[in-house]
Specification:
The chain is built from 4 helices and 15 strands. By secondary structure, the chain is α+β, with helices and mostly antiparallel strands. The strands form 4 sheets. Strands 1-3-10-11-2 form a 5-stranded antiparallel β-sheet. It has a 5-stranded mixed β-sheet with strand order 8-14-13-12-15, with no helix packed on it.
Length: about 280
């Protein structure tokens, strides 16, 4: 057996390691070359690049409903921090530089957190849904994702899922961030708000971009390997000329092979393949 990493010795050493990573990220944010977006405007940019909504309260098997309710509070607080932000050409949007530390003093509640040892709870839990929203908007634009951390496992069965599986991102203050760079020649803006039980979002720009984007999931199925089931699919991003409506090219952005961590009885039988 190999020697344990310092962070794996005990909970105390893990906490020390986590604080070290937070400090390193703070130093990089302060002295790094990235220009982090910090401008806000209540005036909405005129062109909608992409809009989307996602359900706030889902039926998650084995999860305390109170954690789900607290997630809504956490997301509403994050909306107040993000809504209206302008990302100018050459600037980078940072989830945590914008939201700040999601602690108890800032009004955040204990929500569901995906930790290194599985599901747990923590202040600010549930903010991954906000990061997922922003990432989905960005995927439907020419903006450049510069930091992304995928969920590697299938944690829950589908409940009214509207986007391809696996197209979200993890965030954990502040070492696990989500970032994108505005590599275009115009300002872009993010609008996020909660309405009718849903998180709503818009990516806006000053002018219409010459291309539009479509994301498709193909070859989706479940497969048993040994004693475990895995969720498998490929997600492609298709770039389409806005004027001619011609498909210019498609790129593979996700090749999912995710361990199913929920009860196998929730796997739809017609989606299981033996080959």
């Amino acid at each position: 057996m190999g020697r344990k990493l310092f962070c794996d010795i005990c909970p105390a050493t893990y906490k020390i390691s986590l604080e070290k990573e937070i400090l390193i990220k703070d130093i990089k944010n302060t002295f790094g070359k990235e220009k982090i977006a910090k401008t806000f405007s209540s005036d909405e940019l005129p062109n909608i690049v992409k809009s989307h909504s996602s359900i706030l309260l889902r039926n998650l098997v084995g999860v305390d409903p109170e954690l789900q309710k607290n997630k809504v509070t956490n997301i509403m607080l994050a909306c107040n921090k993000i809504n209206g932000i302008i990302v100018r050409p050459g600037e980078t949007f940072s989830f945590w530089c914008t939201v700040g530390k999601p602690g108890k003093k800032a009004g955040y509640k204990e929500g569901l957190v995906i930790g290194r040892n599985g599901l747990t709870s923590g202040y600010g839990g549930g903010l991954c849904q906000m990061a997922n929203m922003i990432h989905w908007l960005v995927l439907n634009s020419p903006l450049e994702v510069t930091e992304l951390h995928h969920h590697s496992d299938a944690l829950f069965p589908d409940d009214r899922r509207r986007i391809p599986f696996g197209s979200g991102t993890s965030v954990s203050y502040n070492s696990v961030d989500y970032r994108f760079k505005n590599n275009t020649n115009q300002d872009i803006q993010i609008l996020v708000w909660c309405e009718n039980g849903e998180l709503c979002g818009e990516l806006r720009s000053q002018r219409e971009f010459p291309y539009r984007y479509k994301l498709v999931e193909e070859n989706h199925h479940f497969k048993k390997e040994g004693n475990r089931y895995f969720r498998i699919s490929q997600v492609y991003r298709i770039v389409i000329d806005r004027t001619s409506n011609e498909e210019l090219y498609r790129e593979l952005i996700l090749d999912n092979h995710s361990a199913v961590l929920y009860d196998y009885s929730f796997i739809p039988k017609d989606q299981i393949r033996d080959d």
